[in-house]
Amino acid sequence: MTWARSFVALAATLTLAACDAAPARTPPAGAPTRAAPTASPAASPSHPTEITLAFAGDVHFAGRTADLLGDPATAFGSISSTLSAADLAMVNLETAVTTRGAPEPKEFHFRAPASAYDAVKAAGIDVVSIANNHALDYGRTGLADTVDAARAAGMPAVGAGADAAAAYTPWFTEIRGTRIAVLGFSQISELWSEWRATDTRAGIAMTRDLPRATAAVRAARRQASVVVVYVHWGTEGDACPPAEARAFADEMAEAGATIIVGTHAHLLLGDGWIGNTFVQYGLGNFLWWRDDAYSNDTGVLRVTLDGSATSKTELVPATISRRTGRPELAAAADAAQIRREYAGLHACTGLAASPTP
Question: Which pTM was predicted?
Fold first, then answer.
């Protein structure tokens, strides 16, 4: 996210080397943690290949949510049961995880202690994106701490690292025989050129390094039958995706993404399809630091796969508590209203209402 109102190409051999290497290889120094494949939960006899993925929006521990880290095991509250019920759950961790570094030249700065990762793990979250406009709030020292703390906690973190090879490397996992790759990218304009990862500099995986991003997704698709692309994009307070986001979604679909999800605008955006690629443009705030955002409506996006094919998508409505900043499942009347409003957001996405061959 950004609070401002307006906020190359990689040599093919480097990208392919980073993405095509065997998952068991030792990652580059400072690269996001690459976990071993997860154990496969028992499948339903009637749906032996059914897999459930859960995605939610922006998370950070500041303001009213900082005290939640006093007990990381309960930081996310009751929404944890919704996240942990999925075979794989993911959020955007929108903070530097560090006690060091100097503030970057920007208005808002967020950082949290390493216990942030304990809280995320306790909530049932399996992987986080750190490709956003706050991971470098305390410079490259803070980013190095963020990556190191993720590794120490055993929490896969995608979208940033010690160099471009690390930042653009997917996390791989396997669930009931289906291999899944997860990547993170940022499209936020603020400080993007200073914060982008290069061959020799730590930073964020940026959508504007399009050849590098496209190569990473294509390489992931060669190794996995499901590719998830999580993007920090959009315009603060605007419920319609901007042209730049729509163009990048098209590129990612063409490159082989199965699912594209995003955050940043501080409210929910619509969803739909580009061919057989499911796109969700905005999941809004989730565990949120103060009560002055555009909307307290949020939710968990639940995507069901039948093997590698997306068979069902639904938003599980939630609202952010004004007292704690935690997301809580919406009561019946609120849930019905959120679903109605969410359905109407499709109109300005430019996406198809259903998949096409």
Answer: 0.88
